[in-house]
Specification:
The strands form two sheets. Strands 4, 5, 6, 7, 8, 9, 10, 11, 12, 13 and 14 form an eleven-stranded mixed β-sheet that branches. The chain has 14 helices and 14 strands. Helix 11 (292-300) packs antiparallel against helix 13. It has 360 residues and is an alpha+beta fold. The chain has helices spanning 3-25, 39-54, 62-72, 80-101, 104-110, 165-175, 182-190, 214-217, 265-268, 273-283, 292-300, 323-327, 336-345, 349-352, and strands at residues 31-33, 114-120, 126-132, 134-138, 141-145, 151-154, 157-164, 196-200, 205-212, 226-238, 248-251, 255-256, 306-309, 315-317. It has two domains: 22-132, no CATH class; 134-352, no CATH class.
């Protein structure tokens, strides 16, 4: 082989290596799909995911495309805390855009009983998980649950949570603003997909917490997520009557924080009637409207609604600092009524844009 041939061969080898490197850098993480009981729904989503990996710019902005490619190539450009925050945002955006790209006839046929979410495994691969709402008849009427519902132990009886139709309707009514979007559907399915935290409050009430991105509420928090106490479900034990049915703790309704028979009611009872009337009008939409004035008022008066989760999974009240608001008169409020009027009159946005309320 001549010297020129050897040079040409080396040049071609280097060019091929550069192409392989470029192709690798443009590659998205691999994807794993969990089992789905609806083959057509599964096939439609897999088709969209294949399109996403071929043409990601149709589904995500350049920032998130670069983020996922850096994950694939182990060239991480952010701190661990920032990376987790951006990944959470990117995965939620990807899930929503995949949903929006599904054929309308598939959505009409299989939703809202079926949904999915995209997460990332420890091996930095996409993971698609499905949830399905199961409907069964019982002597109590129709009940709704899924195989992924968590177990709750009350009166020494461990059983999964299920919902009556009334409870399901009240949760949708009081917690969601749009049940036709991916966000609305995913919130419904978070009830059934093990993404909520259910904690016994006493022998008759179960607390429900859900995870929310503080940015959606206007709350600055470096972790990127916090947990919100939605409210309480009065429950009763329901024995499985037919073959294949299991016993469950049956939630009969949802009582939003501050409603009658909730612990926070004692705080509200200290208010004069005119403020009670205003508060009652806002309680129904406190969660769905992310009413930060009410969340902070409850938190300030030792009835926490915003929580942090430690490494062991335990929920603790989110630490708040009130220095700037105290300087403007909050510390002078001696009663719940005075502090409520203070929060209602304040434009809280300028306090929420920095870290003047929430600890960094």
């Amino acid at each position: 082989m001549s010297r020129s041939d050897k040079a040409a061969k080396r040049k071609k080898k280097a060019k091929d290596k550069e192409k392989r490197k470029l192709k690798s850098e443009l590659r998205m993480p691999s994807v794993d799909f969990c089992a789905c009981s609806e083959p057509e729904f599964d096939a439609a989503l897999k088709e969209q995911f294949q399109k996403f990996r071929r043409t990601p710019d149709e589904y995500l902005s350049p920032f998130y495309i670069r983020l996922f490619r850096s994950v694939q190539n182990r060239r991480l450009e952010h701190s661990e805390q920032e990376l987790q925050k951006y990944l959470n945002e990117g995965l939620e955006l990807l899930s929503r855009n995949l949903w929006n790209a599904l054929p309308p006839d598939i959505v009409k046929e299989y939703c809202p009983d079926n949904s999915f979410s995209v997460t990332m495994t420890r091996k930095l691969r996409f993971l698609v998980t499905y949830t399905q709402i199961i409907h069964q008849s019982a002597k109590e009427g129709a009940i709704h649950f899924s195989s992924k519902m968590p177990k709750v132990t009350l009166n020494r009886l461990p059983a999964k949570i299920a919902f009556t139709t009334h409870a399901f309707d009240r949760i949708v009514e009081r917690c969601l603003t749009d049940t036709n979007s991916y966000y609305g559907i995913s919130m419904i399915h978070s009830l059934f997909g093990g993404k909520l935290v259910f904690k016994p409050y006493n022998e008759e009430l179960v607390q429900i917490y859900f995870m929310v991105w503080p940015a959606r509420m206007g709350l600055p928090h470096k972790k990127g997520v916090c947990w919100v106490l939605v409210g309480y479900c009065p429950v009763e034990f329901c024995f499985g009557q037919a073959a294949g049915q299991t016993s469950s703790w049956l939630a009969k309704t949802l009582l939003v924080v501050g409603m009658k028979n909730t612990p926070e009611r004692r705080l509200i009872n200290q208010l004069p009637n005119n403020l009670k009337t205003i508060l009652h009008q806002r309680l129904e939409g406190m969660v769905s409207n992310c009413d930060v004035h009410l969340f902070l008022w409850f938190q300030y008066n030792n009835c926490p609604c915003l929580y942090d989760q430690d490494k062991k999974g335990e929920l603790t009240p989110l630490p708040l600092i009130w220095d700037l608001l105290n300087q403007e008169g909050l510390s002078k409020c001696k009663t719940p009524a005075e502090s409520l009027e203070f929060f209602f009159k304040k434009d809280l946005q300028k306090y929420l844009e920095g870290t003047t309320i929430l600890l960094p």
